[in-house]
From TrEMBL:
Residues 22-94 form the BD-FAE-like domain. This is BD-FAE-like domain-containing protein. It comes from the Eukaryota. It comes from Penicillium nalgiovense. One of its GO terms (biological process) is monocarboxylic acid biosynthetic process. Transmembrane segments: none annotated. Residues 1-27 are annotated as: Disordered.
Amino acid sequence: MEMETTIISASGSPSPPWQSGTDSTGSAEVARLTGQSYAFATVNYTLIPSVTVEEQVHEVADSLGYLVRNAARLDFDLQQIIQMGHSSGAHDSVISLDGSNYNAVAEITDSPGKIADSTIRGLGTDPKRLQAMSTTHHARAPNAGIFLLLHVHRQGDIRQAVELSAALEAAGTDVALHVFEGEGFEGDMQMLLRLGDPTYPATLVMDNWLKVHVPVTIASA
Protein backbone atom coordinates (compact mmCIF):
# COMPACT_ATOMS: atom_id res chain seq x y z
CA MET A 1 0.00 0.00 0.00
CA GLU A 2 1.33 3.45 -0.92
CA MET A 3 1.53 5.86 2.00
CA GLU A 4 0.77 9.52 1.43
CA THR A 5 2.85 12.62 2.03
CA THR A 6 1.05 14.60 4.72
CA ILE A 7 0.75 18.38 4.96
CA ILE A 8 -0.16 19.64 8.42
CA SER A 9 -1.63 23.14 8.60
CA ALA A 10 -1.77 25.47 11.61
CA SER A 11 -3.90 28.51 10.89
CA GLY A 12 -3.48 31.83 12.62
CA SER A 13 -4.93 35.30 12.60
CA PRO A 14 -3.29 38.41 11.15
CA SER A 15 -4.78 40.69 13.79
CA PRO A 16 -4.56 40.22 16.66
CA PRO A 17 -2.02 37.37 16.44
CA TRP A 18 -2.37 34.38 18.79
CA GLN A 19 -5.60 35.86 20.20
CA SER A 20 -8.21 35.08 17.55
CA GLY A 21 -8.81 32.74 14.65
CA THR A 22 -9.66 29.06 14.30
CA ASP A 23 -8.33 25.97 12.59
CA SER A 24 -10.14 27.01 9.41
CA THR A 25 -8.14 26.67 6.21
CA GLY A 26 -9.02 27.95 2.77
CA SER A 27 -11.13 25.35 0.98
CA ALA A 28 -9.30 25.98 -2.31
CA GLU A 29 -5.99 25.08 -0.65
CA VAL A 30 -7.34 21.84 0.82
CA ALA A 31 -9.00 20.82 -2.45
CA ARG A 32 -5.85 21.58 -4.42
CA LEU A 33 -3.57 19.53 -2.20
CA THR A 34 -5.85 16.55 -1.64
CA GLY A 35 -6.60 16.56 -5.37
CA GLN A 36 -2.87 16.03 -5.93
CA SER A 37 -2.95 13.01 -3.57
CA TYR A 38 -1.44 14.72 -0.54
CA ALA A 39 -2.99 13.87 2.82
CA PHE A 40 -4.00 17.01 4.73
CA ALA A 41 -4.47 17.62 8.44
CA THR A 42 -5.29 20.86 10.22
CA VAL A 43 -4.55 21.53 13.89
CA ASN A 44 -5.78 24.12 16.33
CA TYR A 45 -4.38 25.68 19.49
CA THR A 46 -5.76 27.43 22.56
CA LEU A 47 -5.79 31.22 22.33
CA ILE A 48 -4.15 33.68 24.68
CA PRO A 49 -4.70 34.78 27.41
CA SER A 50 -5.83 31.27 28.40
CA VAL A 51 -2.33 30.04 27.52
CA THR A 52 0.99 31.62 26.58
CA VAL A 53 2.36 31.71 23.04
CA GLU A 54 5.00 29.21 24.14
CA GLU A 55 2.22 26.84 25.19
CA GLN A 56 0.55 27.33 21.81
CA VAL A 57 3.77 26.18 20.13
CA HIS A 58 3.83 23.11 22.36
CA GLU A 59 0.20 22.33 21.50
CA VAL A 60 1.03 22.36 17.79
CA ALA A 61 4.10 20.19 18.47
CA ASP A 62 1.96 17.75 20.46
CA SER A 63 -0.49 17.52 17.55
CA LEU A 64 2.38 16.81 15.18
CA GLY A 65 3.66 14.17 17.58
CA TYR A 66 0.26 12.49 17.67
CA LEU A 67 0.18 12.27 13.89
CA VAL A 68 3.72 10.89 13.79
CA ARG A 69 2.91 8.23 16.38
CA ASN A 70 -0.19 7.20 14.44
CA ALA A 71 1.33 7.39 10.95
CA ALA A 72 0.90 3.69 10.21
CA ARG A 73 -2.76 3.66 11.26
CA LEU A 74 -3.46 6.82 9.26
CA ASP A 75 -1.61 5.50 6.18
CA PHE A 76 0.82 8.33 5.62
CA ASP A 77 4.57 8.41 5.14
CA LEU A 78 6.40 9.16 8.38
CA GLN A 79 9.36 10.50 6.39
CA GLN A 80 7.25 12.88 4.31
CA ILE A 81 5.56 15.38 6.61
CA ILE A 82 5.39 19.08 5.74
CA GLN A 83 4.21 21.64 8.29
CA MET A 84 2.37 24.62 6.81
CA GLY A 85 1.08 27.65 8.66
CA HIS A 86 -0.68 30.93 7.94
CA SER A 87 0.08 34.27 9.59
CA SER A 88 0.77 33.71 13.32
CA GLY A 89 0.26 29.99 12.69
CA ALA A 90 3.31 30.10 10.43
CA HIS A 91 5.63 30.95 13.31
CA ASP A 92 7.38 27.56 13.15
CA SER A 93 6.29 26.16 9.78
CA VAL A 94 8.25 24.88 6.79
CA ILE A 95 5.71 26.40 4.38
CA SER A 96 4.97 29.87 5.72
CA LEU A 97 1.94 31.69 4.31
CA ASP A 98 2.47 35.38 5.03
CA GLY A 99 4.09 34.56 8.36
CA SER A 100 4.87 37.17 10.99
CA ASN A 101 7.11 37.72 14.01
CA TYR A 102 10.18 36.11 12.48
CA ASN A 103 11.94 38.82 14.51
CA ALA A 104 9.63 39.91 17.33
CA VAL A 105 11.64 43.00 18.29
CA ALA A 106 11.58 44.16 14.67
CA GLU A 107 7.84 43.44 14.50
CA ILE A 108 7.29 45.93 17.32
CA THR A 109 9.51 48.64 15.82
CA ASP A 110 8.51 48.07 12.17
CA SER A 111 4.76 48.01 12.74
CA PRO A 112 3.75 50.63 15.31
CA GLY A 113 0.12 50.75 16.37
CA LYS A 114 -2.20 47.75 16.51
CA ILE A 115 0.31 45.17 15.29
CA ALA A 116 2.99 46.25 17.76
CA ASP A 117 0.43 46.38 20.56
CA SER A 118 -0.75 42.85 19.71
CA THR A 119 2.81 41.54 19.69
CA ILE A 120 3.45 43.08 23.09
CA ARG A 121 0.22 41.57 24.46
CA GLY A 122 1.32 38.18 23.21
CA LEU A 123 5.04 38.24 23.97
CA GLY A 124 5.63 41.12 26.36
CA THR A 125 8.68 43.37 26.19
CA ASP A 126 11.42 41.24 27.76
CA PRO A 127 14.20 41.20 25.10
CA LYS A 128 15.24 37.64 26.01
CA ARG A 129 11.71 36.32 25.56
CA LEU A 130 11.24 38.23 22.31
CA GLN A 131 14.45 36.74 20.96
CA ALA A 132 13.54 33.25 22.15
CA MET A 133 10.21 33.49 20.29
CA SER A 134 11.74 34.82 17.06
CA THR A 135 12.10 32.28 14.26
CA THR A 136 15.20 33.95 12.84
CA HIS A 137 17.10 33.33 16.08
CA HIS A 138 16.47 29.59 15.70
CA ALA A 139 17.59 29.29 12.08
CA ARG A 140 20.93 27.66 12.84
CA ALA A 141 21.45 23.99 12.03
CA PRO A 142 20.20 21.37 12.62
CA ASN A 143 16.94 22.42 11.07
CA ALA A 144 14.33 21.32 8.58
CA GLY A 145 16.08 20.93 5.25
CA ILE A 146 13.74 23.06 3.14
CA PHE A 147 11.54 26.12 3.61
CA LEU A 148 9.04 27.98 1.42
CA LEU A 149 8.08 31.53 2.41
CA LEU A 150 5.10 33.03 0.55
CA HIS A 151 4.36 36.66 1.41
CA VAL A 152 2.26 39.67 0.52
CA HIS A 153 3.31 43.26 1.18
CA ARG A 154 2.88 43.75 4.91
CA GLN A 155 4.77 46.49 6.70
CA GLY A 156 8.07 45.19 8.04
CA ASP A 157 7.35 41.53 7.34
CA ILE A 158 9.16 41.42 3.98
CA ARG A 159 12.36 42.66 5.60
CA GLN A 160 11.98 40.06 8.32
CA ALA A 161 11.39 37.36 5.71
CA VAL A 162 14.57 38.38 3.87
CA GLU A 163 16.51 38.25 7.16
CA LEU A 164 15.10 34.80 7.95
CA SER A 165 15.99 33.58 4.46
CA ALA A 166 19.56 34.82 4.87
CA ALA A 167 19.87 33.15 8.28
CA LEU A 168 18.54 29.85 6.95
CA GLU A 169 20.84 29.94 3.93
CA ALA A 170 23.81 30.69 6.19
CA ALA A 171 22.94 27.52 8.10
CA GLY A 172 22.93 25.50 4.87
CA THR A 173 19.15 25.31 4.58
CA ASP A 174 17.36 25.46 1.22
CA VAL A 175 14.84 28.34 1.32
CA ALA A 176 12.67 29.97 -1.33
CA LEU A 177 11.06 33.38 -0.72
CA HIS A 178 8.32 34.73 -3.00
CA VAL A 179 6.36 37.97 -2.62
CA PHE A 180 2.94 38.55 -4.20
CA GLU A 181 0.51 41.40 -4.69
CA GLY A 182 -1.66 42.42 -1.77
CA GLU A 183 -1.16 44.60 1.27
CA GLY A 184 -1.97 44.48 4.96
CA PHE A 185 -4.90 42.51 6.34
CA GLU A 186 -6.61 42.26 2.95
CA GLY A 187 -3.53 40.77 1.29
CA ASP A 188 -3.01 38.35 4.16
CA MET A 189 -6.58 37.07 3.95
CA GLN A 190 -6.37 36.87 0.17
CA MET A 191 -3.46 34.46 0.48
CA LEU A 192 -5.36 32.33 3.00
CA LEU A 193 -8.53 32.16 0.93
CA ARG A 194 -7.11 32.08 -2.61
CA LEU A 195 -4.14 29.75 -2.22
CA GLY A 196 -5.18 26.70 -4.21
CA ASP A 197 -7.00 28.76 -6.84
CA PRO A 198 -5.11 28.06 -10.10
CA THR A 199 -5.46 31.73 -11.11
CA TYR A 200 -3.69 32.92 -7.93
CA PRO A 201 0.08 33.17 -8.63
CA ALA A 202 1.17 31.71 -5.29
CA THR A 203 -0.65 28.46 -6.10
CA LEU A 204 1.65 27.61 -9.00
CA VAL A 205 4.71 28.46 -6.90
CA MET A 206 3.53 26.11 -4.14
CA ASP A 207 2.68 23.37 -6.66
CA ASN A 208 6.13 23.52 -8.25
CA TRP A 209 7.92 23.60 -4.89
CA LEU A 210 6.05 20.51 -3.69
CA LYS A 211 6.75 18.65 -6.95
CA VAL A 212 10.47 19.28 -6.54
CA HIS A 213 10.86 18.62 -2.83
CA VAL A 214 8.05 16.23 -1.84
CA PRO A 215 6.63 14.73 -5.02
CA VAL A 216 3.69 12.38 -4.81
CA THR A 217 4.53 8.87 -5.97
CA ILE A 218 1.76 6.61 -7.18
CA ALA A 219 2.20 2.91 -6.63
CA SER A 220 1.98 0.79 -9.77
CA ALA A 221 -0.83 -1.74 -9.98
